[in-house]
Write a structure and sequence with these properties.
Elements: E1 3-8, H1 12-24, E2 29-35, H2 47-51, H3 57-60, H4 65-70, E3 74-77, E4 81-85, E5 90-93, E6 96-99, E7 102-105, E8 109-111, E9 124-125, H5 130-142, E10 145-149, H6 153-164, E11 168-172, H7 185-197, E12 201-203, E13 208-214, E14 217-223, E15 228-230, E16 233-236, E17 240-242, H8 245-249, E18 258-260, E19 271-273, E20 278-280, H9 288-302, E21 315-317, E22 325-329, E23 337-344, E24 349-356, E25 359-366, H10 372-380, H11 407-412, E26 425-432, E27 435-442
Parallel strand pairs: 1-2, 1-7, 2-3, 7-19, 9-16, 10-11, 10-16, 11-12, 18-20
Antiparallel strand pairs: 4-5, 5-6, 8-17, 13-14, 14-15, 21-22, 22-25, 23-24, 23-27, 24-25, 26-27
Helix pairs in contact: 1-9
This protein binds flavin-adenine dinucleotide.
Flavin-adenine dinucleotide (FAD) binds next to helix 1, strand 2, helix 2 and helix 9.
Amino acid sequence: MAQRLVVIGAGMASGRMLEHLFDEAPGAYEVTLFNAEPRGNYNRIMLSPVLAGEKTYEEIVTHDDAWYEAQGVTCRFGEKVTAIDRAAKVVMGENGPVSYDKLVIATGSTPFIIPMPGHDLKGVIAYRDLEDTNAMIGAAARGGKAVVIGGGLLGLEAAAGLKMRGMDVTVVHIMGHLMERQLDPAAGALLRHALEDRGIEVLCEAQSEAILGEDGHVRALKLRDGRELPCEILVMAVGIRPNIALAQQAGLACGRGIQVDDALVTCDPDILALGECIEHDGHIFGLVAPLYDQAKVLAATLRGEAAAYVTREVSTKLKVTGCDLFSAGDFAEGPGREDIVFRDPGHGIYKRLILEGERLIGAVMYGDTIDSNWFFSLIKERADISAMRDTLIFGPGFQGGDTADPRVAVAALPRSAVGGDGLPQTQIATAAPGGFAQAFLRSAQR
Ligand SMILES: Cc1cc2nc3c(=O)[nH]c(=O)nc-3n(C[C@H](O)[C@H](O)[C@H](O)COP(=O)(O)OP(=O)(O)OC[C@H]3O[C@@H](n4cnc5c(N)ncnc54)[C@H](O)[C@@H]3O)c2cc1C
Protein backbone atom coordinates (compact mmCIF):
# COMPACT_ATOMS: atom_id res chain seq x y z
CA MET A 1 0.00 0.00 0.00
CA ALA A 2 1.19 3.50 -0.81
CA GLN A 3 2.60 5.48 2.09
CA ARG A 4 1.37 9.01 2.81
CA LEU A 5 3.92 11.68 1.88
CA VAL A 6 3.26 15.30 2.78
CA VAL A 7 5.45 17.97 1.17
CA ILE A 8 5.53 21.54 2.53
CA GLY A 9 6.50 23.99 -0.22
CA ALA A 10 5.98 23.64 -3.99
CA GLY A 11 9.20 25.37 -4.99
CA MET A 12 12.07 24.48 -7.28
CA ALA A 13 13.66 21.91 -4.98
CA SER A 14 10.54 19.90 -4.14
CA GLY A 15 9.31 20.06 -7.75
CA ARG A 16 12.47 18.37 -8.98
CA MET A 17 12.37 15.86 -6.12
CA LEU A 18 8.81 14.82 -6.99
CA GLU A 19 9.81 14.30 -10.62
CA HIS A 20 12.55 11.86 -9.53
CA LEU A 21 10.21 10.12 -7.12
CA PHE A 22 7.38 9.62 -9.62
CA ASP A 23 9.80 8.53 -12.36
CA GLU A 24 11.59 5.98 -10.27
CA ALA A 25 8.99 4.81 -7.76
CA PRO A 26 5.55 5.43 -9.26
CA GLY A 27 2.77 4.57 -6.85
CA ALA A 28 5.04 4.31 -3.81
CA TYR A 29 3.57 7.41 -2.19
CA GLU A 30 0.27 9.25 -2.04
CA VAL A 31 1.39 12.85 -2.08
CA THR A 32 -0.21 15.93 -0.52
CA LEU A 33 1.57 19.14 -1.53
CA PHE A 34 1.12 22.39 0.39
CA ASN A 35 2.20 25.74 -0.97
CA ALA A 36 1.82 29.13 0.65
CA GLU A 37 1.84 30.72 -2.81
CA PRO A 38 -1.53 30.31 -4.55
CA ARG A 39 -0.04 28.20 -7.35
CA GLY A 40 2.17 25.23 -8.05
CA ASN A 41 5.75 25.04 -9.16
CA TYR A 42 7.28 27.56 -11.55
CA ASN A 43 10.85 28.37 -12.47
CA ARG A 44 11.56 31.08 -9.92
CA ILE A 45 14.88 32.03 -11.49
CA MET A 46 12.98 33.08 -14.61
CA LEU A 47 11.02 35.78 -12.76
CA SER A 48 13.68 38.24 -13.94
CA PRO A 49 12.93 37.63 -17.64
CA VAL A 50 9.22 38.01 -16.73
CA LEU A 51 9.98 41.33 -15.04
CA ALA A 52 12.03 42.44 -18.04
CA GLY A 53 9.11 41.60 -20.36
CA GLU A 54 11.07 38.83 -22.11
CA LYS A 55 8.83 35.98 -20.88
CA THR A 56 5.33 35.54 -19.54
CA TYR A 57 4.45 33.75 -16.31
CA GLU A 58 2.76 30.96 -18.32
CA GLU A 59 6.08 30.26 -20.04
CA ILE A 60 7.90 29.65 -16.77
CA VAL A 61 5.42 27.22 -15.20
CA THR A 62 7.22 23.90 -14.75
CA HIS A 63 4.39 21.77 -13.33
CA ASP A 64 0.86 22.59 -14.41
CA ASP A 65 -2.50 21.34 -13.10
CA ALA A 66 -2.48 18.45 -15.59
CA TRP A 67 0.88 17.23 -14.29
CA TYR A 68 -0.25 17.20 -10.66
CA GLU A 69 -3.47 15.44 -11.67
CA ALA A 70 -1.63 12.81 -13.69
CA GLN A 71 0.61 12.06 -10.69
CA GLY A 72 -2.37 11.93 -8.32
CA VAL A 73 -1.01 14.76 -6.16
CA THR A 74 -3.48 16.40 -3.76
CA CYS A 75 -2.67 20.09 -4.16
CA ARG A 76 -3.27 22.48 -1.29
CA PHE A 77 -2.03 25.64 -2.95
CA GLY A 78 -2.52 29.01 -1.30
CA GLU A 79 -2.56 27.19 2.05
CA LYS A 80 0.19 27.59 4.60
CA VAL A 81 1.21 24.85 6.98
CA THR A 82 1.10 26.42 10.43
CA ALA A 83 2.39 23.59 12.65
CA ILE A 84 3.83 20.07 12.65
CA ASP A 85 2.74 17.64 15.37
CA ARG A 86 5.59 15.13 15.28
CA ALA A 87 4.14 12.85 17.94
CA ALA A 88 0.84 12.45 16.05
CA LYS A 89 2.61 12.67 12.63
CA VAL A 90 0.18 15.35 11.44
CA VAL A 91 0.74 18.71 9.74
CA MET A 92 -1.74 21.53 10.40
CA GLY A 93 -2.75 23.34 7.23
CA GLU A 94 -4.73 26.58 7.42
CA ASN A 95 -7.73 24.58 6.14
CA GLY A 96 -7.23 21.45 8.23
CA PRO A 97 -4.81 18.69 9.27
CA VAL A 98 -3.18 15.95 7.15
CA SER A 99 -1.46 12.83 8.49
CA TYR A 100 1.85 11.64 7.09
CA ASP A 101 4.12 8.62 7.12
CA LYS A 102 6.96 10.73 5.71
CA LEU A 103 7.17 14.52 5.67
CA VAL A 104 9.38 16.66 3.42
CA ILE A 105 10.03 20.29 4.38
CA ALA A 106 10.98 22.47 1.40
CA THR A 107 10.00 25.94 2.55
CA GLY A 108 12.85 27.81 0.81
CA SER A 109 14.01 31.20 2.05
CA THR A 110 12.54 34.47 3.21
CA PRO A 111 13.93 37.74 1.88
CA PHE A 112 15.68 39.78 4.54
CA ILE A 113 14.10 43.17 5.12
CA ILE A 114 16.37 45.69 6.85
CA PRO A 115 14.33 46.84 9.86
CA MET A 116 15.03 50.52 9.18
CA PRO A 117 12.40 53.21 9.75
CA GLY A 118 9.79 53.07 6.98
CA HIS A 119 10.44 49.46 5.91
CA ASP A 120 6.73 48.67 6.27
CA LEU A 121 5.49 51.50 4.02
CA LYS A 122 3.44 50.63 0.93
CA GLY A 123 5.63 50.41 -2.12
CA VAL A 124 8.53 48.77 -0.23
CA ILE A 125 8.88 45.24 -1.54
CA ALA A 126 11.23 42.27 -1.64
CA TYR A 127 11.96 40.22 -4.76
CA ARG A 128 11.06 36.60 -4.24
CA ASP A 129 7.86 35.53 -5.97
CA LEU A 130 5.33 36.28 -8.67
CA GLU A 131 3.46 38.74 -6.41
CA ASP A 132 6.64 40.82 -6.00
CA THR A 133 7.27 40.66 -9.74
CA ASN A 134 3.72 41.77 -10.54
CA ALA A 135 4.01 44.60 -7.98
CA MET A 136 7.10 45.87 -9.83
CA ILE A 137 5.42 45.52 -13.23
CA GLY A 138 2.41 47.47 -11.88
CA ALA A 139 4.60 50.24 -10.45
CA ALA A 140 6.58 50.49 -13.70
CA ALA A 141 3.32 50.91 -15.66
CA ARG A 142 2.70 54.09 -13.65
CA GLY A 143 6.27 55.27 -14.40
CA GLY A 144 8.52 57.36 -12.17
CA LYS A 145 11.51 56.49 -10.04
CA ALA A 146 12.62 53.24 -8.42
CA VAL A 147 15.32 52.62 -5.84
CA VAL A 148 16.83 49.17 -5.42
CA ILE A 149 18.78 48.51 -2.23
CA GLY A 150 21.32 45.77 -2.94
CA GLY A 151 23.81 45.42 -5.77
CA GLY A 152 23.83 41.63 -5.78
CA LEU A 153 22.36 39.25 -8.37
CA LEU A 154 18.72 39.83 -7.45
CA GLY A 155 19.00 43.59 -6.99
CA LEU A 156 20.65 44.07 -10.37
CA GLU A 157 18.13 41.86 -12.14
CA ALA A 158 15.33 43.87 -10.51
CA ALA A 159 17.01 47.15 -11.50
CA ALA A 160 17.52 46.07 -15.11
CA GLY A 161 13.93 44.84 -15.39
CA LEU A 162 12.47 48.07 -13.95
CA LYS A 163 14.68 50.11 -16.28
CA MET A 164 13.54 48.09 -19.29
CA ARG A 165 9.98 48.89 -18.26
CA GLY A 166 10.77 52.60 -18.35
CA MET A 167 11.50 53.59 -14.75
CA ASP A 168 14.39 55.78 -13.61
CA VAL A 169 16.37 53.39 -11.44
CA THR A 170 19.03 53.92 -8.77
CA VAL A 171 20.88 50.99 -7.21
CA VAL A 172 22.16 51.63 -3.69
CA HIS A 173 24.92 49.26 -2.62
CA ILE A 174 26.74 49.31 0.67
CA MET A 175 29.95 47.67 -0.60
CA GLY A 176 32.70 49.15 -2.80
CA HIS A 177 31.73 47.22 -5.93
CA LEU A 178 28.74 45.36 -7.32
CA MET A 179 28.16 41.63 -6.72
CA GLU A 180 31.16 41.53 -4.40
CA ARG A 181 30.41 37.94 -3.39
CA GLN A 182 30.77 36.75 -6.99
CA LEU A 183 33.00 39.34 -8.70
CA ASP A 184 36.34 40.92 -8.03
CA PRO A 185 36.58 44.75 -8.13
CA ALA A 186 37.72 44.87 -11.79
CA ALA A 187 34.80 42.80 -13.08
CA GLY A 188 32.48 44.71 -10.73
CA ALA A 189 33.62 48.00 -12.30
CA LEU A 190 32.92 46.74 -15.84
CA LEU A 191 29.48 45.63 -14.77
CA ARG A 192 28.82 49.01 -13.17
CA HIS A 193 29.77 50.82 -16.39
CA ALA A 194 27.53 48.55 -18.44
CA LEU A 195 24.58 49.30 -16.15
CA GLU A 196 25.33 53.02 -16.15
CA ASP A 197 25.52 52.95 -19.95
CA ARG A 198 21.94 51.74 -20.01
CA GLY A 199 20.88 54.59 -17.74
CA ILE A 200 20.86 52.89 -14.32
CA GLU A 201 22.41 55.02 -11.60
CA VAL A 202 24.71 53.05 -9.29
CA LEU A 203 25.75 54.30 -5.85
CA CYS A 204 28.38 52.15 -4.14
CA GLU A 205 29.55 52.56 -0.53
CA ALA A 206 26.14 54.10 0.12
CA GLN A 207 24.43 53.44 3.43
CA SER A 208 20.67 53.53 3.70
CA GLU A 209 19.35 55.24 6.81
CA ALA A 210 15.55 55.50 6.53
CA ILE A 211 12.70 55.09 4.11
CA LEU A 212 10.59 58.22 3.98
CA GLY A 213 6.88 58.08 3.32
CA GLU A 214 3.84 60.17 2.56
CA ASP A 215 0.27 59.01 3.27
CA GLY A 216 1.59 55.54 4.13
CA HIS A 217 3.43 55.15 0.80
CA VAL A 218 7.17 55.30 0.13
CA ARG A 219 8.37 58.69 -1.08
CA ALA A 220 12.20 58.49 -0.87
CA LEU A 221 15.20 56.68 0.53
CA LYS A 222 17.35 58.72 2.87
CA LEU A 223 21.07 57.91 2.89
CA ARG A 224 23.35 58.31 5.87
CA ASP A 225 25.18 61.19 4.13
CA GLY A 226 21.89 63.11 4.04
CA ARG A 227 21.01 62.58 0.38
CA GLU A 228 17.38 61.76 -0.40
CA LEU A 229 16.54 59.58 -3.40
CA PRO A 230 12.90 60.11 -4.39
CA CYS A 231 11.07 56.95 -5.49
CA GLU A 232 7.62 55.51 -6.12
CA ILE A 233 8.83 51.98 -5.41
CA LEU A 234 11.68 50.65 -3.31
CA VAL A 235 12.95 47.11 -3.81
CA MET A 236 14.97 45.58 -1.01
CA ALA A 237 17.24 42.83 -2.29
CA VAL A 238 19.75 42.47 0.51
CA GLY A 239 19.82 38.76 1.12
CA ILE A 240 17.75 35.79 2.15
CA ARG A 241 17.35 33.70 5.29
CA PRO A 242 16.42 29.99 5.36
CA ASN A 243 12.73 29.64 6.21
CA ILE A 244 12.99 27.50 9.34
CA ALA A 245 10.23 28.85 11.63
CA LEU A 246 7.99 25.81 11.19
CA ALA A 247 10.83 23.36 11.81
CA GLN A 248 11.99 25.27 14.89
CA GLN A 249 8.46 25.26 16.35
CA ALA A 250 8.35 21.50 15.81
CA GLY A 251 11.59 21.08 17.75
CA LEU A 252 13.73 19.94 14.80
CA ALA A 253 17.45 20.65 15.12
CA CYS A 254 18.24 23.93 13.36
CA GLY A 255 21.32 26.08 12.98
CA ARG A 256 21.14 28.69 10.26
CA GLY A 257 18.98 26.17 8.39
CA ILE A 258 17.17 22.91 9.22
CA GLN A 259 20.00 20.50 9.97
CA VAL A 260 20.06 17.38 7.81
CA ASP A 261 22.43 14.46 7.37
CA ASP A 262 23.90 13.29 4.04
CA ALA A 263 20.67 11.44 3.20
CA LEU A 264 18.79 14.73 3.87
CA VAL A 265 17.01 13.36 6.91
CA THR A 266 16.46 15.72 9.86
CA CYS A 267 16.89 14.71 13.48
CA ASP A 268 13.43 13.06 13.13
CA PRO A 269 13.79 9.94 10.93
CA ASP A 270 10.36 10.50 9.33
CA ILE A 271 11.04 14.12 8.39
CA LEU A 272 13.33 15.03 5.51
CA ALA A 273 14.20 18.47 4.15
CA LEU A 274 15.82 20.02 1.10
CA GLY A 275 16.38 23.32 -0.66
CA GLU A 276 17.22 26.74 0.67
CA CYS A 277 15.67 25.96 4.07
CA ILE A 278 18.36 23.41 5.00
CA GLU A 279 21.82 23.44 6.47
CA HIS A 280 24.08 20.60 5.40
CA ASP A 281 27.57 20.21 6.77
CA GLY A 282 27.58 23.88 7.82
CA HIS A 283 26.51 25.12 4.36
CA ILE A 284 23.32 26.93 3.42
CA PHE A 285 22.21 27.46 -0.18
CA GLY A 286 21.07 30.27 -2.48
CA LEU A 287 21.41 28.86 -5.99
CA VAL A 288 19.44 26.18 -7.70
CA ALA A 289 22.13 23.74 -8.91
CA PRO A 290 22.88 22.19 -5.49
CA LEU A 291 19.15 21.92 -4.80
CA TYR A 292 18.75 19.73 -7.87
CA ASP A 293 21.46 17.41 -6.51
CA GLN A 294 19.57 17.34 -3.21
CA ALA A 295 16.33 16.51 -5.05
CA LYS A 296 17.91 13.36 -6.47
CA VAL A 297 19.29 12.27 -3.10
CA LEU A 298 16.06 12.93 -1.21
CA ALA A 299 14.00 10.97 -3.76
CA ALA A 300 16.43 8.06 -3.38
CA THR A 301 16.17 8.21 0.41
CA LEU A 302 12.37 8.11 0.13
CA ARG A 303 12.70 5.04 -2.09
CA GLY A 304 14.75 3.41 0.66
CA GLU A 305 18.00 3.56 -1.31
CA ALA A 306 21.33 4.70 0.11
CA ALA A 307 22.32 8.09 -1.27
CA ALA A 308 24.48 10.91 0.00
CA TYR A 309 24.44 14.60 -0.83
CA VAL A 310 27.83 16.16 -1.41
CA THR A 311 28.32 19.93 -1.65
CA ARG A 312 29.86 20.94 -4.97
CA GLU A 313 31.18 24.14 -6.51
CA VAL A 314 28.54 26.53 -7.79
CA SER A 315 28.68 29.10 -10.55
CA THR A 316 26.74 32.31 -11.12
CA LYS A 317 25.53 34.07 -14.23
CA LEU A 318 23.60 37.35 -14.25
CA LYS A 319 20.37 37.22 -16.24
CA VAL A 320 20.55 40.76 -17.60
CA THR A 321 20.44 40.74 -21.37
CA GLY A 322 23.65 42.26 -22.72
CA CYS A 323 25.66 41.82 -19.48
CA ASP A 324 27.65 38.62 -19.84
CA LEU A 325 29.24 37.67 -16.61
CA PHE A 326 30.29 34.45 -15.01
CA SER A 327 31.81 33.65 -11.66
CA ALA A 328 32.67 30.32 -10.07
CA GLY A 329 34.73 28.93 -7.25
CA ASP A 330 36.97 30.86 -4.93
CA PHE A 331 38.62 34.04 -6.17
CA ALA A 332 39.87 35.54 -2.95
CA GLU A 333 43.57 36.34 -2.79
CA GLY A 334 45.61 34.21 -0.45
CA PRO A 335 49.01 32.66 0.20
CA GLY A 336 50.01 30.13 -2.44
CA ARG A 337 47.47 31.44 -4.94
CA GLU A 338 48.29 32.92 -8.33
CA ASP A 339 46.15 34.51 -10.95
CA ILE A 340 46.11 34.84 -14.72
CA VAL A 341 44.39 37.97 -15.96
CA PHE A 342 43.21 38.99 -19.43
CA ARG A 343 41.96 42.53 -20.00
CA ASP A 344 40.54 44.13 -23.10
CA PRO A 345 39.05 47.38 -21.79
CA GLY A 346 38.19 48.57 -25.31
CA HIS A 347 35.83 45.65 -25.77
CA GLY A 348 34.77 45.44 -22.11
CA ILE A 349 36.32 42.02 -21.63
CA TYR A 350 37.90 40.87 -18.40
CA LYS A 351 38.88 37.36 -17.38
CA ARG A 352 40.63 36.23 -14.26
CA LEU A 353 41.61 32.69 -13.39
CA ILE A 354 42.76 31.79 -9.90
CA LEU A 355 45.21 28.93 -9.48
CA GLU A 356 46.28 27.04 -6.42
CA GLY A 357 49.20 24.80 -7.26
CA GLU A 358 48.30 22.97 -10.47
CA ARG A 359 44.56 23.44 -10.07
CA LEU A 360 42.10 26.05 -11.21
CA ILE A 361 40.05 27.02 -8.16
CA GLY A 362 38.17 30.08 -9.37
CA ALA A 363 37.21 32.05 -12.45
CA VAL A 364 35.65 35.47 -13.01
CA MET A 365 34.70 36.57 -16.50
CA TYR A 366 32.99 39.61 -17.89
CA GLY A 367 32.12 40.43 -21.48
CA ASP A 368 33.11 37.08 -23.00
CA THR A 369 31.79 34.07 -21.13
CA ILE A 370 31.62 31.65 -24.03
CA ASP A 371 34.13 29.27 -22.43
CA SER A 372 32.67 29.50 -18.92
CA ASN A 373 31.33 25.93 -18.86
CA TRP A 374 34.74 24.57 -19.78
CA PHE A 375 36.45 26.54 -17.01
CA PHE A 376 33.72 25.50 -14.58
CA SER A 377 34.34 21.82 -15.42
CA LEU A 378 38.05 22.26 -14.72
CA ILE A 379 37.19 23.73 -11.31
CA LYS A 380 34.64 21.03 -10.43
CA GLU A 381 36.88 18.19 -11.60
CA ARG A 382 39.91 19.67 -9.84
CA ALA A 383 41.78 19.01 -13.08
CA ASP A 384 45.56 19.32 -13.28
CA ILE A 385 46.06 22.28 -15.64
CA SER A 386 49.87 22.40 -15.56
CA ALA A 387 50.24 21.17 -19.16
CA MET A 388 48.07 23.97 -20.56
CA ARG A 389 48.78 26.70 -18.08
CA ASP A 390 50.40 29.09 -20.58
CA THR A 391 47.34 29.09 -22.82
CA LEU A 392 44.65 28.33 -20.27
CA ILE A 393 43.17 31.84 -20.27
CA PHE A 394 42.45 31.56 -24.02
CA GLY A 395 40.02 28.71 -23.45
CA PRO A 396 39.50 25.23 -24.90
CA GLY A 397 39.99 26.40 -28.51
CA PHE A 398 43.70 26.87 -27.82
CA GLN A 399 44.40 23.59 -26.11
CA GLY A 400 45.05 21.62 -29.27
CA GLY A 401 48.14 23.56 -30.48
CA ASP A 402 46.39 24.81 -33.61
CA THR A 403 47.65 27.65 -35.81
CA ALA A 404 46.23 30.39 -33.63
CA ASP A 405 48.17 29.01 -30.70
CA PRO A 406 49.15 32.02 -28.55
CA ARG A 407 52.15 30.12 -27.20
CA VAL A 408 53.88 31.27 -30.37
CA ALA A 409 53.33 34.83 -29.24
CA VAL A 410 54.35 34.00 -25.70
CA ALA A 411 57.58 32.42 -26.86
CA ALA A 412 58.42 35.45 -28.99
CA LEU A 413 58.27 37.85 -26.10
CA PRO A 414 60.82 38.29 -23.34
CA ARG A 415 59.78 37.61 -19.79
CA SER A 416 59.81 41.23 -18.98
CA ALA A 417 58.83 43.97 -16.79
CA VAL A 418 57.80 44.11 -13.25
CA GLY A 419 54.15 45.04 -12.97
CA GLY A 420 52.68 47.90 -10.99
CA ASP A 421 52.15 45.59 -8.06
CA GLY A 422 55.78 44.51 -8.07
CA LEU A 423 55.08 41.09 -9.54
CA PRO A 424 57.04 39.83 -12.53
CA GLN A 425 54.74 39.47 -15.49
CA THR A 426 54.87 38.68 -19.15
CA GLN A 427 52.92 41.00 -21.38
CA ILE A 428 51.61 39.41 -24.53
CA ALA A 429 50.13 41.18 -27.48
CA THR A 430 47.89 38.78 -29.28
CA ALA A 431 44.93 38.66 -31.57
CA ALA A 432 42.04 37.45 -29.46
CA PRO A 433 38.40 36.77 -30.18
CA GLY A 434 36.77 40.17 -30.13
CA GLY A 435 39.79 42.14 -31.30
CA PHE A 436 43.25 43.21 -30.23
CA ALA A 437 43.88 42.58 -26.61
CA GLN A 438 46.52 42.42 -23.99
CA ALA A 439 46.99 39.60 -21.59
CA PHE A 440 49.10 39.53 -18.50
CA LEU A 441 50.30 36.19 -17.33
CA ARG A 442 51.34 36.70 -13.78
CA SER A 443 53.71 34.02 -12.72
CA ALA A 444 54.73 35.10 -9.28
CA GLN A 445 53.31 33.71 -6.13
CA ARG A 446 51.37 36.11 -4.01
C1 LIG B 1 14.18 36.61 -8.92
C2 LIG B 1 15.09 35.45 -8.61
C3 LIG B 1 16.08 35.09 -9.52
C4 LIG B 1 16.91 34.01 -9.24
N1 LIG B 1 17.88 33.69 -10.14
C5 LIG B 1 18.65 32.62 -9.90
C6 LIG B 1 19.63 32.23 -10.86
O1 LIG B 1 19.83 32.87 -11.89
N2 LIG B 1 20.36 31.09 -10.61
C7 LIG B 1 20.15 30.35 -9.48
O2 LIG B 1 20.81 29.32 -9.31
N3 LIG B 1 19.24 30.71 -8.54
C8 LIG B 1 18.49 31.83 -8.73
N4 LIG B 1 17.55 32.18 -7.79
C9 LIG B 1 17.43 31.37 -6.56
C10 LIG B 1 16.49 30.17 -6.77
O3 LIG B 1 15.27 30.60 -7.27
C11 LIG B 1 16.31 29.45 -5.45
O4 LIG B 1 17.56 28.89 -5.10
C12 LIG B 1 15.27 28.35 -5.49
O5 LIG B 1 14.03 28.79 -5.94
C13 LIG B 1 15.07 27.77 -4.08
O6 LIG B 1 14.21 26.66 -4.17
P1 LIG B 1 13.44 26.10 -2.89
O7 LIG B 1 12.55 25.03 -3.39
O8 LIG B 1 14.38 25.82 -1.80
O9 LIG B 1 12.56 27.34 -2.39
P2 LIG B 1 11.41 28.11 -3.17
O10 LIG B 1 11.54 27.99 -4.63
O11 LIG B 1 11.39 29.48 -2.58
O12 LIG B 1 10.07 27.37 -2.74
C14 LIG B 1 9.63 27.34 -1.39
C15 LIG B 1 8.11 27.34 -1.41
O13 LIG B 1 7.68 27.01 -0.09
C16 LIG B 1 6.52 27.74 0.19
N5 LIG B 1 6.34 27.81 1.64
C17 LIG B 1 7.14 28.41 2.54
N6 LIG B 1 6.64 28.24 3.80
C18 LIG B 1 5.50 27.51 3.68
C19 LIG B 1 4.54 27.00 4.61
N7 LIG B 1 4.64 27.19 5.92
N8 LIG B 1 3.49 26.29 4.12
C20 LIG B 1 3.35 26.06 2.79
N9 LIG B 1 4.25 26.52 1.86
C21 LIG B 1 5.31 27.22 2.31
C22 LIG B 1 6.79 29.10 -0.46
O14 LIG B 1 5.56 29.77 -0.71
C23 LIG B 1 7.51 28.69 -1.73
O15 LIG B 1 6.61 28.57 -2.81
C24 LIG B 1 16.73 33.27 -8.03
C25 LIG B 1 15.72 33.64 -7.12
C26 LIG B 1 14.91 34.71 -7.40
C27 LIG B 1 13.84 35.11 -6.40
